[in-house]
Amino acid sequence: MTRNKTLPPILENARSLRRNQTEAEEKLWKHLRNRKVGNLKFRRQQPFEGFILDFYCPEAKLSVEVDGEIHLRQEEREYDQQRTEYLADFEIKIIRFSNDSVMNNVFEVLSIIMREADERIIK
Questions:
Q1: If we measure between CA atoms, which residue out of 97, 26, 112, 27 comes closest to residue 67?
Q2: Please, are residues 102 and 24 in contact by the beta-carbon 8 Å criterion?
């Protein structure tokens, strides 16, 4: 994953998303940043193969997505499923949490993230 392979519009969109985080994304980022969870490095709004991953841990090949209500729509669920299947070809696992889960149960969310990362990292 290199920046020179990412199209400028995707990079700009990722930058914009970083500047305009949702409240749930901001809350989760406070816990994930600076290796606060399991000493794992997470990147936020990480471009990859034309997509932007909300939070990405390269070491575990784990993407954490924080979804708002729009993701409840059928067409969004279908798109998310196709995206998940495509990224699985790169051995990236996607785990999803609703905004509500992050806002109301952030420590449970962090526990699930840590468990998933632990399962994916070869020690």
A1: 97
A2: yes
Q: CA 5 → CA 14, 45, 81, distances in Å? A: 14, 16, 24
CB of 29 within 8 A of CB of 54?
no
Task: Write the DSSP symbol of residue 43.
Answer: E
Residue range 61-95, pLDDT digits in tens: 999 999 876 656 667 788 889 999 999 999 999 99
Length of the chain in residues, anyone?
123
pLDDT in tens, 16-31: 667 778 999 999 999 9
Q: What is the pTM of this model?
A: 0.82
Strands 43-48, 93-98: parallel, antiparallel or unpaired by DSSP? unpaired
The CATH T-level fold of domain 3-120 is Endonuclease; Chain A (3.40.960)
Q: For the chain, what are the domain ranges?
A: 3-120
Alpha-carbon gap, residue 118 to 116, rounded angstroms: 5
Rounded to an integer, what distance in angstroms lies between the CA atom of residue 113 and that of residue 109? 6
